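Sample intake sheet
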Amino acid sequence: MPIEKAHAIVLRLVDFSETSQVVTLFTREFGKIGALAKGAHRQKGPFDSALDLLTLARVVFLRKSSGGLDLLTEAKLEHRFRPPDHDLTPLFAGYYLAELLLGLTDEYDPHPELFDVAAKTLHTLSREGKVNISPLILSFEMNALRLLGHLPNLEQCVECGKPIAIEGYVAFGQSSGGVLCRRCRPGKKHVSQIRGESLKTLQWYSRCEDNSHQAPPYLISGEVRGVINHSISHLLGREPRMQKHLQFLIQD
């Protein structure tokens, strides 16, 4: 069993015994992994209080070759996810981020850029003072969809490739995976009409790799959230469990 070292975000913790836990980590070097942390509940152990939900840590683990759980042998805390106590909104946003990483990524499929975006988002959510969470989370969602190859087509008609003119309302094919021109729209199922401003918002976030701290040029409307929520629900095969707590993500 090779010894591996990685930067990791703790996504899930499940008790395995009185002293041990099964942990799911999203690592920069290896992608998502599942590992057994023996002695995780002991006060003195090799994990340095690093195994809390959404903490960032340096980990050492033994990689199993047979497809079973890896064995976590060491974890050193780098950053604890600790949003302000007076507001649950950053906490819910962090849980949502973890749910997306759990559901949208595969084991041992590394995406280092996505790890960096997730780590930066968690740092921002932990920051004292007012954080504009709506654009922060939309930025993470769009980056995740882009980096994982699931971003809807927002510039050209998904059927014929014709550039879309933003005039009034634009047809968005939920099942088709992007915008539709007037010629290709007839007969398509699961098509919604979204305002041009909503499409511009989606385009802006899809073009900017790091816009989490910038003021969006348009409000993040219910239409924008509808497009993103549907795309993510389709990929997960269900609605995100944290979705009912995310009404704050709509700005208008």
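Comment: DSSP finds five helices and eight strands in the chain. The mean pLDDT is 90.
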